[in-house]
Amino acid sequence: MIIKKDDIQYLDEITAIVREAGFEPKSVVKISKTDTSCYLSYGKILKLKYEIENNNVKRVCIYDRLKPRQVTCLMKELNVDVIDQVMLLLRIFQMHAGSKEALLQIEMARLSHELPLVREWIRRSKMGELPGFLGGGRYAIDIQYEHIRRRLARIRKELIEIRSKKRNERERRRRSGWIHIALIGYTNAGKTSLFNALTNLNKPTGDEMFTTLTPKTYALNICSDEIRKIVLVDTIGFIKKLPIEIIEAFKVVLEEIKAADILLFVIDASKDPHLIYNEIDTALSILQNIGFEGKPIIVALNKIDLLNSNSENKRDISDIANSVSEYLLSKNVNVLKIVPISALKNLNIDALKESICQAAYQLKALKNTYMY
């Protein structure tokens, strides 16, 4: 497994992603700089060759987004399979895909990632530097290239139809006065546990990453008669440096966030402060990418049951809440409320429901003001 030295603070998360994808890292190689042609320097490649030969390594995982020429160069030099960050994530997504929509999104992301690689393979095979794709010869890769292009066109058409259908459903609910609240947060922050706690449902949860690939919606009946129409939407978990192909492929999910009236931002409060800040930055960056800015946000500081569970993790939740509040305000985030909770232990969920209802009242009052 190869990671950049800048990412060493995320080593546990990256190792978990590699294991979740079905691989067991035999060793970790840290690099401080990359090469534009082959990603790794000549010296690193020589060291890797020695390690591959002596440890029977079958595959090299690189936690970065590689260019097609870098993949082909490494496969030629190392003579083993090379997987980058995009392919690792897509392997995990494939395992958790539970709907036609999710499968189409994953296939589109995979083919979009493979297409430039096949194009590069064609270029180098015509130059005599590489054999045909999967040993099939020059014409076989030409056929493969055209097949991918046609398949991508069909998938895009199907996803546009799905997006249109979901948009129409959303608009119908909105015209009927429904308020949409999207659950967002870093992967494994406890979004689906909170979804279950608020809805009394039992959607699958666990330590596995990316268990939510298709948005789950549920009508909440937690406020007074005045606000009876709230739709809660569970969405995909964020990770650091979410590749652009995946953001593009999961537009159907991300549009649910963009179209929401209020965000419920779930943060794992048991993590170290610098990791919390990094995860907030990741979430804000993705929100900015999809065009969601300025809308109100309620923050759920989750997993407070893990605080003070041992002598190394003793921290005051009010200190954490204050520091998160100051950090979000410094980023000009429209924070309505910060509520410490434990979705798993059902702690403070009533206080969170009250905050959701208050936000819904404010939104409804604002809409009524504009109507008149």
Could you give the topology of this structure?
Layout (H helix, E strand, L loop, with lengths): L1 E3 L6 H10 L8 E3 L10 H14 L3 E4 L5 H11 L2 E4 H12 L3 H27 L11 H38 L3 E7 L5 H9 L16 E5 L9 E5 L9 H6 L1 H8 L3 E7 L4 H17 L7 E6 L14 H14 L4 E6 L8 H23 L1
Parallel strand pairs: 1-2, 3-4, 5-7, 5-8, 8-9, 9-10
Antiparallel strand pairs: 6-7
Helix pairs in contact: 3-5, 4-5, 5-6, 10-11
Folded structure, characterized:
With 372 residues, this protein is α/β, with parallel strands linked by helices. It has twelve helices and ten strands. It has a six-stranded mixed sheet, sandwiched between helices. Helix 10 links the parallel strand 8 and strand 9 (297-302). Helix 5 runs antiparallel to helix 6 and helix 10 (273-289) runs parallel beside helix 11. The termini are far apart. The mean pLDDT is 84.
Quick one: biggest sheet? 6 strands, mixed
SSE run: EHEHEHEHHHEHEEHHEHEHEH
Overall mean pLDDT: 84
Q: Compute the number of helices.
A: 12
Which geometry do the CA atoms define?
globular
Termini separation: 60 Å
Q: In total, how many beta strands?
A: 10
Low-pLDDT sequence parts = none
Strand order of the largest sheet: 6-7-5-8-9-10
Radius of gyration: 23 Å
* Helical/strand content category: alpha/beta
Helix proportion: 40-55%
What percent strand? 5-15%
